[in-house]
Design brief:
heterohexamer; A: 113 residues; alpha+beta; Alpha-Beta Plaits; two-stranded antiparallel sheet; 3 helices; 7 strands; 41% strand; B: 453 residues; mainly alpha; Ammonium transporter fold; 2 domains; binds adenosine-5'-diphosphate
């Protein structure tokens, strides 16, 4: 099992969710985050003062998958989430030692099937 | 050149066929002007009372949780609407039309058959003012039973209180009924409006039970903070603003200097309530408790409502200040001792302080009050009135809620309550764009969307 | 001792040089008092209409997404301001000054040269009331084209509608123009104000296109929930409140008992609209849909506006109830069939229900209405008026929007729309402290800050 | 049948014993009607001024951070309340009761001993209107010193300004004092109300120091965005709405056509302020800055307040437009050059534009203004008044704040400020249900809760 | 050391916190997330349009514990967080290389004690 | 590559971001969390009821860095984020298997450079 963590643009969340659903993956956890990186921020203006808005709205997608799904999932996210402009985001892959389904107590791959 | 309003004129011409109460047909007179001033005054006061419904909506939603916001707002919208329609259908007739034994009115349903009555101002002006009052009594209930009561159950109770429970009390006190005959004094409704709402709320909150999580396993009280205090504050200020229609408008006349007197006592009592609750909570907990301070302003207002025309400004300050101290004590009592869960403090604000304010007339009335050497007779009359309205409302509300419970049930299921009434009863969220939950169609546009334009 | 207001007196003295319409110079008379009552009434009504702009601002921002909130609020602030200035510059003259062929006024630009006109009340009182009306028509557009329209394009259209499109219609109906001559009856503006706003909104929303994501690849409609329903509800109640200025104030007189009648029909129609939309959506989806219920209250209000002085209270209930059912049907029609994206339902509320309300006068008018045995002639006149205003507004708005499109463009870029107009057009966020995005200077103070004090 | 209001009648009967100023005892007369119209007008105007406090509460909370919201709202609730009580106790006497050397009043404390005075309308109506004005001056301070000032320090200053500083200025200008004698013209209080508030705010904000993080290590200004712009916008519109009581109500008479004139100049100046700030900020930064545009509307309103009855509509547009440009320049000046941190722009709106508006009377007054050939004498008087009030307020406020600093301290600790005043001074959050912090009892109900019902 | 990440129902957060406290664990980090999986969403209605609300409110609990506490903690969360209905959530266990307490600079197990 | 996760006080976010920027690291993801631990909560009062506010506002910083930057980054965060009072927070270091830049498909260290 691996944990795939993708930082994506908010605007592509739905399409990625749909594409993953078509591939057969429904379980995931989503949260709102703010990101900075190469992407240039916006110039903000407030009461006549300019300032740099350099933490931008992003969405974090967390999916735990079986080892053999990792490549496919990364592919899907990359393809659907890519606009080619700076700021498309990253995918990080982490090792995972175990997963438990609270409802049943199932462990390992069973927990996420 | 003279602009002519053809259409206006033709319509107004048409209206002249309807009964008008002494308005100028050919040229204004002192009498027609006085009538016009009174009409304008009562209507504007009625508009101000109307905006109190926005105040209630904000106080009730601000002091409850975000997950029940759509629900409480829906209730508020329906309360004012049902209230107006039912007061048109039956409430007005019961309150002001004829009299059966000093107990109830019996004519004027749908405002028909009452051309022989004289209200001092045009009948529709009088009706309008009374109708917005009626909905006020009803809306007090929604705050106390918030976050757990079924929408349908609440609507049914709103029908009963506006069509029947409240109008009967109005008849007793303002419609020439038995309490009026006894000299019971409740100028603008500390008892007639606020207590009727509050005692209904008391029965309702008792029968529907406390919100899940309000009392711990050990019975310990848990605070359940409101989700939007700025809205609650704005709501309180809108209520205060509307009260300037509620109290001074209850003269039903703009041609009396009493309106200035009443505005002054109203203002001073509310201010005194705010300050005394602030000092009281600050002294008690080391921190001023805004959630109670806002209630304290309302406590002062409810407290002065009965005696607003009868007490002096200094008397008003005393009444407001006492109400502002009674309020946190009452909230504590209901929370900790009686254990009736009232999320917004409606029972304490409108019930405790409404009863206090009504009794205070017997103490502080410049004419007839105990403290002004008027003896105890007015006070005794006031006590009788307060108790009678408590019993009437309590019994009626109990029967009504029990009936409703039997028919549709009072309370949502545990699952629905935990999830929040907005999702379970409405499928809608108050802040649908803040969270990710809206999913497929929510805060985020899919790329697919890009194509369709 | 007599307090003397030196400064007040000197100013007032100065003002006496300006023309006053029969106000008491030495001692009040019945005539001067009647005039004062009318003036006070119209001004207060105008203040209430003004607060409708707060209502619009809240409804429009509450029912759209957080990322476009600063944008919509900026539009609202400018609409009322541009509206007042342009109605001063040209609108008033076109609407009420002189007459060219029953079609358009031609004098009184900048309120000069009109000392010979008689409006019943002081000219400035009349102007004030009409000016806040004017901005109301304009602001209806901003809701319908929200979340995707360029700021500059919207401002240009606001200039055109307040300076020209709307005043012409006013001239036709209220300024002695051809529809007035025909006996067309639109008491407070179901057609004159609301439909003009709505048909402009229709054209605008059509030309600017749907919001990204509103229609899926397959053309399926997607709900885009508003971000703050409590604000939307407060906005609706403020509009309702303001309507008590809009309708009863349109008598332009406080010395008629009609104002009470009108307040009553207004109240009952709004209530009926609220209840009927509630029941309708509940029956249809199993859940009462607050987003539509709020629109339903407004539907009742728009519906009664034309006939508020001409129909009976029972008639008002019918009109409100029908409007409350037409509303969700119309919303569905525009959403699903016509596929014009109107985030706040402005076209259905003000257009569909405005047209219905105007026609309803022909049916329900106590004098001349079809249902009261008055035959079809009034109804036919009403149809002519509705159609004429539809064509005029539609054509003008189409030309105007096309011109604006050619000059500055109607719509922001896809990137800007996706990011939100607040960041792209304003560099500002509505809730700048809730998110972390404000970065360097936002919700969090850097330690560096500690030193600087 | 005649409905009888037993209780109403008995109370009203009682009130007849209190002095009424010429109200109709038996049958209305033209005089009693005129008095009634004036009373009704002033009271309603006072109600509108009251709602300005809701406007201030929203503007001040919307333009500051979420963590200080409960604090600012508590301050607003107390300001209006303390203001009313203290204006009753001492303020009214100092302002309007008797006269000592043109400098200060000396009788009428607690509104006693003033039955010999004549205010044109019932004394309580006059008091009410003046009392809500008084609290307005005080509340201007709270915005400027927000997010860092101790609650107790603020309350003490509110006592001093409402009980003493403000009433003295009122006496000078409206109470027959030395500035009134000189012909100083400040119709509704650009200087008397707004500047007194603003200069106090200036001193307070200077002495309490800038918020942590406002100025970087290098002295660079950092923007600290407000947390809720929709509330700030609603607040601005409520202020604008209330201004229709503030200015037209200051005639203290509804029987003059000036009220229509004043409503018109008020409306046009506010509109011009909004538009000119919009264009100015758009031109300067390429983006219209809503935070300043809202201030711009208020700038126009403050600017016109002194001359609202003395200038023409076109003059009002000029005054509003200039104020709308002065505003962003002044904000910049205080932010960047003078480095006084004023989170909501109170000093610029009420001080800079208040002073400008007062001087503008000397330029634009139709009678006596420099631009209308009236020479410089009025202008010089205006300058004297502006300077005198600046010195008086500045000195008093300085002494007061220094005293308060010595007694309770002006500013919260760094830790408290960083954490937010809501948690540190109140133990309460404005949005207690949005975050997880409420913990044990917050947004989430524990399962334990399930049992207790 | 391990990191235990639990996606739970918001309604059980307090009980789990209490149960962990009794067991002796006080340190944890909590955040609001939205989850989808097997649990059926709600049907939303807005202005007459039905839609699927398929991202549901969940709470994410993050605890870093010593290796020997893992089983016990998983047990507690499973027991208290289990309703038996679909949607109870998951527990994921990740390896961790180090932990540092910012205040003191303590590393490893010391950082979280 | 490692993932560095720091739970810090909201008030130091900007300084840490600045210090990391000076060191040359710009990419990071930030989120709002609530934490409990040794730090004493505030006593809340609401309508006369006292209660314990024991989940406190914290900010979570997530940075994926190359292995050789870890020590330096930890140092910077520790130094800038340290007030010495209880509640300064923790830094956790996790292993990571891979990182992908969505925009380009770059993997590994390239993805985060
Ligand atoms: N080293 C990193 N660690 C964690 N998150 C990162 C890192 N670098 C970038 N991110 C996240 O990825 C987002 C996109 O990165 P950015 O450099 O702006 O564009 P791109 O990924 O297209 O090169 C950032 O907003 C941030 O949330
Ligand atoms: N593969 C996964 N990766 C990450 N989070 C998941 C995964 N599957 C489920 N979740 C999270 O767990 C929650 C509950 O899962 P769900 O399948 O609905 O019920 P259950 O856990 O009872 O089978 C989801 O809402 C989601 O937040
Ligand atoms: N075991 C843990 N697992 C995850 N997060 C923790 C843990 N212990 C503490 N934290 C986080 O670190 C923050 C600070 O911890 P705390 O014990 O209060 O102070 P300190 O780090 O100074 O000892 C907590 O608010 C919490 O967010």
């Amino acid at each position: 099992m691996k944990k795939i963590e993708a930082i994506i643009r908010p605007t592509v969340l739905e399409d990625i969710k749909e594409a993953l659903g078509e591939y057969g993956i429904h379980g995931m956890t989503v949260s709102e985050v703010a990101g900075c990186g190469l992407q240039k921020g916006r110039v903000g203006i407030y009461r006549g003062s300019k300032f740099n808005i350099n933490l931008l709205h992003k969405v974090k997608l967390e999916l735990v998958t079986t080892d053999n799904q990792v490549n496919e999932v990364v592919e899907i996210i990359s393809k659907v989430g890519r606009s080619g402009e700076i700021g498309d985001g990253k995918i990080f892959i982490y090792p995972l030692e175990n997963a438990i389904r609270i409802r049943t107590g199932d462990e390992g791959d069973d927990a996420i099937s | 050149m003279n602009i002519k309003y053809f259409c206006l004129l033709s319509i107004l011409g048409g209206l002249l066929l309807f009964p008008t109460v002494g308005f100028a047909a050919d040229g204004p007179t002192a009498e027609s002007n006085a009538l016009a001033i009174n009409t304008v005054w009562v209507l504007i006061a009625g508009f101000l009372v109307f905006i109190m419904h926005a105040g209630f909506a904000l106080v009730e939603s601000g002091f409850t949780r975000a997950k029940n916001t759509v629900n409480i707002l829906t209730k508020n919208m329906m309360t004012i609407s049902l209230g107006a329609l039912l007061f048109f259908a039956t409430g007005f007739a019961i309150a002001f039309g004829g009299d059966v034994g000093g107990f109830i009115g019996n004519k004027g349903f749908f405002l028909t058959n009452i051309s022989d009555m004289d209200f001092g101002i045009p009948m529709y002006g009088f009706w309008f003012f009374q109708a917005v009052f009626c909905a006020t009594a009803a809306t007090i209930v929604s705050g106390a039973v918030a976050e757990r009561t079924k929408l349908s159950a609440y609507f049914l109770f709103t029908v009963i209180i506006t069509a029947f429970i409240y109008p009967v009390v109005v008849h007793w006190v303002w419609g020439g009924g038995w309490l009026a005959t006894r000299g019971f004094t409740d100028f603008a409704g500390s008892t007639v409006v606020h207590s009727v709402g509050a005692w209904s709320a008391l029965v309702g909150a008792y029968l529907v039970g406390a919100r899940l999580g309000k009392y711990g396993k050990d019975g310990k009280v848990r605070a359940i903070p409101g989700h939007n205090i700025p809205l609650g504050t704005l709501g309180t200020l809108l209520l205060w603003f509307g009260w300037f229609g509620f109290n001074p408008g209850s003269t039903l006349s703009g041609t009396t200097s009493d309106i200035a007197w009443i505005a002054t006592t109203t203002m001073l009592a509310a201010s005194a309530g705010t300050v005394s609750t602030t000092l009281f909570t600050w002294a008690k907990h080391g921190k001023p408790d805004l959630a109670l301070i806002l209630n304290g302003a309302l406590a002062g207002l409810v407290g002065i409502t009965a005696g607003t025309a009868a007490v002096t400004p200094v008397g008003a300050i005393f009444i407001g200040a006492i109400a502002g101290i009674l309020l946190p004590i009452s909230v504590d009592l209901f929370d900790r001792v009686i254990k009736i869960d009232d999320p917004v403090g409606a029972i304490s604000v409108h019930g405790t302080c409404g009863a206090f304010g009504t009794l205070a007339v017997g103490l502080f009335a410049h004419e007839g009050g105990l403290f002004y050497g008027g003896g105890a007779s007015l006070l005794i009359t006031q006590i009788i009135g307060v108790v009678a309205v408590f019993i009437w409302t309590g019994v009626c509300a109990f029967v009504a809620f029990k009936l409703i419970d039997a028919i549709v049930g009072l309370r949502v299921s545990q699952e629905e309550e935990l999830e929040g009434l907005d999702l379970s009863e409405h499928g809608m969220e108050a802040y649908g764009d803040f969270t990710l939950k809206a999913g497929e169609i929510g805060g985020f546009n899919s790329r697919a969307g890009k194509i369709s334009t």
